[in-house]
Amino acid sequence: MSQSAEQVLDQVYLEVRAKILEVGASLDRISRSSGDVASDERIQKLLAGIEALGTSDDNRAERIQLIFSDDYVDGWNQ
Amino acid sequence: MYFIDPHVHMISRVTDDYERMARMGCVAVSEPAFWAGFDRGSVDGFRDYFRQLTEFEPTRAGWSGVQHFTWMCINAKEAENVSLSREVIAMIPEFLDKANVLGIGEIGLNKNTPNECTIFREHVDLAMKTNELILIHTPHLQDKFKGTRMIVDMLLEDTRVQPDRVLIDHVEEHTVRVARDHGFWCAMTLYPVTKCTPSRAADIIETYGDDRIMVNSAGDWGPSNPCAVPDFIQEMRRRGHSEAKIKKIVYENPLEFFSKSCNFNFTPPEQQRLDG
Predict the structure, then answer these.
(1) Would you identify the CATH topology of the domain B3-275?
(2) What are the sequence ranges of the domains in chain A?
(3) What is the pLDDT of residues A40-70, one digit of tens each?
(4) For testing the chain A interface, which of B120, B174, B207, B237 should be mutated: the one with the most A CBs within 10 Å?
(5) Do A68 and B141 touch (CB under 8 A)?
(6) Per-domain boundaries in chain B
(7) Do A69 and B241 touch (CB under 8 A)?
(8) B5 forms bridges with which residues in the sheet?
């Protein structure tokens, strides 16, 4: 990695801030709308993905991908 | 910088796209056979499609100085129709000796169904019997992780398969490792919403290295950008990566993989200029 963490933060800060705002506004829009989707599996996955953002490891993207993935069953072709 | 787009569906694009790609440094494209947005009704529909890929499309690409290569198959989505798929697989050898055909692809899975697995294995069998390279489509979104694992399992079932003659496409953060760990080539598709962004592709390169990996636009009839590879080049430059490293990913790696096909008669751009 040829850039320092501070350099990367400088580059992505506003972009990531905007994306987080977009997520917040989208969830607000769902809340304001009629009906209840609290039990919808997709909402649960979105919230699980947001929770994964708060961890401190360096493979958040992979873990979020897996939250949105079907399970693989080892030995399915036996 | 010269680049090769190793996966782009140019029959869905206008001639102006070839011209724009050429102006941004594209010297060659590889176009896998795919789902055209509707299910075709007969083997003759595929025969006409394959003629377009092997006869007209190289000519159209040539108008902009872009070299065109292609792959033959019935895609995973239409593979749900097993009887039609078998007719198409039986017809594919008519095209394998055409000048721009690199192998069998893009085969793979879509919804990870038993029928898709059946036709995937039959395509692999054809590729092994005809000594062709294989280009693999992995499923979208929630089906991708499971489907990619299943595809790797099926490839490992067949002891004739040489991993360095197989390219597993559309890898992302959760599937790149399983492809690379088994010795397969892999590629990342730059679709902003459903696949990789240029910045995430660069992250994956920084995490897993630049061996046996490439990037493509997979431009097609849906929202997509045939000039996405230059966006990746720009992202890598912005991060301070060397020109040599970027060139390896967008030019040399596709050359190395495609050169395993006896039909890859590529003329380097420097040679093209000398030839006039």
Answers:
(1) TIM Barrel (3.20.20)
(2) 1-35, 36-69
(3) 999 999 999 999 999 988 899 999 999 999 9
(4) B174
(5) yes
(6) 3-275
(7) no
(8) B29
